[in-house]
Every structure is written in C-alpha cells, then in structure tokens.
Amino acid sequence: MTETASGPARGSRTKGSKATKGLRIERIHTTPGVHPYDEVEWAHRDVVMTNWRDGSINFEQRGVEFPEFWSVNAVNIVTSKYFRGAVGTPQREVSLKQLIDRIVKTYRKAGEDYKYFASPADAEIFEHELAYALLHQIFSFNSPVWFNVGTPQPQQVSACFILAVDDSMESILDWYKEEGMIFKGGSGAGLNLSRIRSSKELLSSGGNASGPVSFMRGADASAGTIKSGGATRRAAKMVILDVDHPDIEDFIETKVKEEEKIRALRDAGFDMDLGGDDITSVQYQNANNSVRVNDAFMKAVEEGGKFGLTSRMTGETIEEVDAKSLFRKMAEAAWACADPGIQYDDTINHWHTCPESGRINGSNPCSEYMHLDNTSCNLASLNLMKFLKDDGKGNQSFDVDRFSKVVELVITAMDISICFADFPTEKIGENTRAFRQLGIGYANLGALLMATGHAYDSDGGRALAGAITSLMTGTSYKRSAELAAVVGPYDGYAKNATPHQRVMKQHADANTAAVRMDDLDNPIWAAATEAWQDVVRLGEKNGFRNAQASVIAPTGTIGLAMSCDTTGLEPDLALVKFKKLVGGGSMQIVNGTVPQALRRLGYQEEQIEAIVAHIAENGNVIDAPGLKPEHYEVFDCAMGERSISAMGHVRMMAAIQPWISGALSKTVNLPETATVEDVEEVYFEAWKMGVKALAIYRDNCKVGQPLSAKKKEQEKTEVTAKTEATIREAVEKVVEYRPVRKRLPKGRPGITTSFTVGGAEGYMTANSYPDDGLGEVFLKMSKQGSTLAGMMDAFSIAVSVGLQYGVPLETYVSKFTNMRFEPAGMTDDPDVRMAQSIVDYIFRRLALDFLPFETRSALGIHSADERQRHLETGSYEPTEEEVDVEGLAQSAPLAQELKAVETPKAEAAAVVPAPQQAHTSAELVEMQLGIQADAPLCFSCGTKMQRAGSCYICEGCGSTSGCS
After folding, report:
1. Catalytic positions
2. 890 shares a domain with 874
C-alpha cells in the first residue's frame, strides 16, 4: 500500500541514513484523476426513526445523501449518530460526503503537518484511499472519531481509557472526577482498585480503612447520575480487584447481593425494570466487575492448595484461604448474575511490550484494551467480508494483498490521529502521546467463517481466524516499524526496546507453530509469516512507532454502520435476519452468507434453493432437504436450536489471542441449564489456553434467584405460610365466616383479547358484572382436547370461581405477575411488551383493564401511554383533562366500550390475532424460536438489543450499552 521514499514498504528496507523521510503512498482502490465520490451512484433518503412503543418520532432528517448501495439501517445510524450540527440548521451535515471529508481532510492535514508523507501527491492519494475505504464500508474508525474529528469541539479520538487510583483520599476523589469527565464525553474507562488498602487494615489514625468496595459505591452513583443526565449511552466502566486483595470475597459478592435486592423489591411491587424509578436504589449496576487472577492462584486451584491474601501496605499475608473455595465463589457469583468476569494477570503481562514503564493493571470496560495506567487507545475495525473473493460457484479466496495494504493505510491514519487528538486529562494525554497505543481489529468474522463453509467451532474455522489475525497484527507492527523510520519510535521505546522485541518474537514464534488447515488459510499464513519476519528485522533496526497495535473490539455501532452481519469476533446471531426496506417497512431474509456457504460445500443451485426455503420457514437447518448432517455445524449460531457451546467460544478466543496486542471483547454465553461447574470449566480452561480475559453470561441469570438466595427464599415461604395459617386459625375461632358466591347474570359485559407471548398465540375472554368488576376469565391456548387446553380451562374456572367468591383481582395480580416459565418473551401488546410467562401477561393485562390506576401503579403496572407520560412529565398520573380513572375502577379498558354479550367462549377461536412485529434481528429470533434473549430494551427507541462482545447494541438506532 505504501512505500518509503527509498523503496517499497512491503518488505521495504530503508537504504541507510541518507534515505529521504516520508511515506510514498500507492493506490489500492482509487483511479488517478477520479475522486472516489464520482465512482458511485448517490441517492437522497428520508431518515425518520420512531419509538415502537408509542409511534413518537425520535429522529427525523429528510433528504440526506448516501450511496445507493448503503442499507437503510446504516443510513439511519450514520445520519442520527454521526452527522454534526443542529437538525434543521444550515450547519447540519446533509451528506455522507461532508462527514467523510471533515475526517479524511483533518487526517491528511495532520499527516502533512507532522511530515508523514514524502510529497503532496502522496498526501492526496492517502486522502482518496481513506475516503474510498470509509465510503465503501471496508473499515470504520471508532465512534469518537466520527463524533469529534473536524469539529470545533475537542477532537477526542479514543474510545478506551484506563485510569489509576492510589491509596489516598486525594487520588480516590481524582478518580471520581476523571471518570466523570470521560463518561460525559460518551466514552468508557476502567481501573484496578487493588492499591486501596482493605477494610481489614488500619488507617494511620488508628481506625479501620473503608476498603475499595465501599468507595465503589460513590463511583457507581456518579456513573448512574451522569448516565441519567442525558448521555447518548450509559456510563461504561470496568472495576478490577486482584485476587490476593483481602476484600476479594466482598468484591465477588457485591452484585449477587444486589440481584437479591432487585428480585425482592420487584416482588414487593417496586418498579425494578431497566430504567425504572426504583432501580437506582440498587448499587453497583453501572460497572462490569472483574477479578484479576495470577498463575499462583490458578495453580493453587488446580492443586487444591491454600492461597494468601496480602496487605496492601506491607505486602504481608493477612490470611490464607482455600483457593478452590474462592474460585468456586467466583463461579457461583458469575452463574447467578454474570459478574465478576476474570482476567489472567500473568498471561496479560507476559505479552506486555513496555514492562519497564509499569505493569498492566487494568483494562477498558469491555476488556479488549490492556496497557499502562492513565492511557487511552483509539480503535478501528475492518469489515472482513469485504476481502472475501467469491465467484458465485463455490470458488473462494481471501484477498491477502489488498487486506495487507488496507491494514497499512488504517494503521498510518490511526497513528496520525494521536498527533492532533485531545484527551480528557493531562496525564492520559502525556502517556498516550508517549506510547501511541493503537487498536486495529475486525468485524464480520462469524459471517466470513460461515460463508467459507467453516463451522465457528471447528479446527478449520479457528485456523482461518488465526491466520487473518496474525496477518493483521504482523502487518500493523511492520507498518509501525516503517513509521518509526519516518517520524521516530514512540517515546518510551528506548527504555522498553528489549521486551518489545521479545514480544514481537513471541508473536512470530506462535505464527510459525500454528496449524495450517486448507486452501483458504494457507496463503494467509504464508503472508503472515513474511510480515512477522519483516517485523523482527525492521523493529531491530528502526524500533516501533506504537507500543500496541491491535485489539478485537465489540464493533457495536460501527458494525451496523458498515452493514456487518456479525460484530467483532462473534458468531452469527441466527440464520434469519430482520431487514429494513427503503421507503419504510421491513422483511425477514435468510442470511446471504448461507448460499455462499452451501456453494463452498458443493451443493447445486436447486439444492441451495430448497435449503434456503427450509431455513426461511423454520429458522434452522435441521432436517433441511438434501443437507448432509455433517454440514449442520457450519450453520450453528449464537442462539437457536443449534447454538455454539460455551467451550466453542473459548476455543475461538484461544485461536486468536496469540496475535492480538491487547485482548478480545467477548462474553461466553451459557444456557440457562448450565451449572456452576460449567462456569468453573470455562474460567479454568481459558487460563490453560492462554486467553487474557473473558466474562460469562448464563441466560436469564439476571432475573433468576442466585444460588445463595434459594435457601433464604424457601425459609421465607415457610415462615409466610406458618404466619398465614396462624392468622387463619385465630380468625376462625373469633367468627364463623363462610363466603357466598355471587354469580354473573346471563347477559354480561365482556372483552375478548388476542395475544402472543414468546411466539405462542392465545385468546382471553374477560366477563364482568354489569356494575361491579371482573367476574370470570376464559383462556384458549391450543386445540380442544389437548393437555394445554385442558389446563387453561381448569385454571380459568379456578380463577373465575375465586373471583365470584370475592377474592380481589389485585390479589391474583400480585401473586401471578412475575411468575416465570416458558413460553416467555416479546408480546404483541403495546402495553405489556415483555412477559415472563403467559400467566404473567394475563394478569398484567387484566390489571390494566380492570384495576384502578392507584392499585396497579402500586404494583408497578402501567400502560404505554402512562410510561410515555412519565418520560415527558416525570409522573404516571393522568391529567384532569384525561379520562377519570376513579370512575373507571373495576370497569372495562379505556379504549373499548363494553357490550353485553353471552359468554363467547366458543367464539374466541374466530378472533383473528394481531400480527406480531419484529423490530430487530434479536426480536425476530425470539418470534421464531419462542425463546427470550436476555438483553435490555434500548433506552433511545425501546427495541430489544443484541449482544456485541461485552456490551449490547440496538439494531434500530445504533445505541450501545457502552461499546463503540
């Protein structure tokens, strides 16, 4: 892609000290004399983004200009997230050309100012090639570049920050302030609290220290406040504690205890939903927690030995604990609430290029950036599918040469950005300029593997992923060495030259030892081997411009902006996706990677059509006509009938890690049925395989009772039962009371409601007394004569008899809401978007239809209109101009006038159910499979988010839960 003035950069040799400084840039995609913008067809689009909950418009900008080939989702996200200027003003950007120009022209000017290019012609080629790559979605910078570069505001280019805190009140207060400033800018930060003395140690004044867990409360409250103050995404943060810290058990248990609180408060009627009024009373919810373990601890776990917890002040052992028991507590906590994650300290520091300048103690919130304290990293990710050459007949290859040239282009641009970048604190600015950490990575790995006929969990898939990763990082460090010859090595290189070169040789040795598998990965390994040879040779001669080169980030918003099917190193979510259409509307489509994979595997077009049709109808490949069972694994996804095993995720991480400077943003998903032993296996085997860090997430663990709470819950139930029995006996002794059944008249008002819960359809008929509230309920969920139909009939009769004998409806609502069993998930009811079970939905709907506002509000049940009113006014209470709720107590729904009809039990089947709509691929998966993906609803537009690395991404509007 580039050359030094004295020769080509690919394998270049700077010819002595007389060589002219400056890079010569060769063209990759562009044509001399033709601007990249002139080679594509442009179109004008209207971007109107609505909130599906109430139809309100979240964002609107009409007439924006984008290339014809850009997807609706990508246009919407880039327009709403990255265009600068107030909407409706002349300053507002209206074209992708303006957005790309303000970035690439800034990079070109800085490159010229800091003497990166050999001539103005090279600078122009650099600008055009960078514009082409962004225009064609070949790569993307991280979000802060799109937000800030070329604008009057501070030009912050980094998304990832690592802070430091010492054992002093001044340092702790600085931590709060610095973290807050980073959150304000929409970025995330992480730090290690292990320098703070434990609660088991004394202060100089003689009292006991508070301990790091205590100070975490203040930082958590600060993050929550800044989040609610109007940030575009939540305050993303990572908190780490070393395993030998005396407060490690308290740290491990922080979130487990809080999850017990959430469940108890929700059962008591408080609003504990995401974004609810009362969730803020629960602590430690704004951070990812991770335990930093070392080899000594893991070996003690392996051998069943003791492990010492050491004083922060003296280094002496305060107490010894059983290593296996402590490891078990970590696994139990992660099983119960997904925290803490785990980081492997010795593995991390074994690959550290700058140990003479300090240890690696912390990471960013998603655990992919790991380097010195008080530093930052700017990221960029390549779209791997753009480098797959496919002739449509199953003949495929990876474009090694073009990939290498694009890597060189991107690394050059990323390094230039540090020259003009602004930073949130002076310390971070000084250290980042001194070490110049970069984080090149990629997205769409899962799609690439499937398209090439490789199972995600296969030797061939891991070999291809490893080869691409090795080539990317090897080429990046080669370019870094060439940049060092032009503009000098990073300031800290001289002090760290020996360890930096040692780490380069470790990468090269791992490349040599890697297993080659097939015709796709072999050419990539060969190019990677050549790149690493150049790295070692040029590094010894020139040094390196950058202390770090690569990470694998979540690629949340930028992945959607590049129209990627998969994020980061994640596998595909599902085989059938949700797709928005130009002009409005949507459709579900089978992934385009599926036909490519089938051609690679040797299937004929007629077979491919039949298999694709089967997938479109069933959502999976099981029993697809003509598909060989041995090929099923190629189409395994993160969710669904054939989901990838937890160890399959870990093995992929281990296959990539040896050629990544930092680490990998990855959450290992486990099914709800996974055991604590499964979590222990993941954490232990990841250490054995050389992974640097990971977190686990067991489906539904955020709403299920943690292990430590089960016994308490059982005891609580027994006590409650004994108390109720005692009260009942006392009442019966005082007065003989026998309830009287009040039957409904022959003609009674009624409502029939069709509903869908987690893909299961049903009908509910609720009949009421003409003047006195609900009197009977009928439910139909399946064909007459089936077991489910019989159970629903019996349940309906039991509830109806209870109502007629005077059992208050609110008693049923309080008992049956939040009851959890399958089917569960999304519903087609705008007032009750999520239900934990059919019973949960039924009684929420009945509460909305028949209970007065005050009663159901105390139970935390509100309509969509009331929730919207709360967002706008801070109150759920209706205004005087709206319907009188008191007058409608124990009456029909607000939107429907009741009519006197005979009990329409037999007529319920004639009601046509309302169509269920998906707004994202995650919701579509739930509709097809009848399962619930444990992901939050988007704060911006209300749609179900999907996991992206360690974070969540909204496919509807591009908002993230903390990643770029």
Report:
1. 364, 366, 368
2. yes
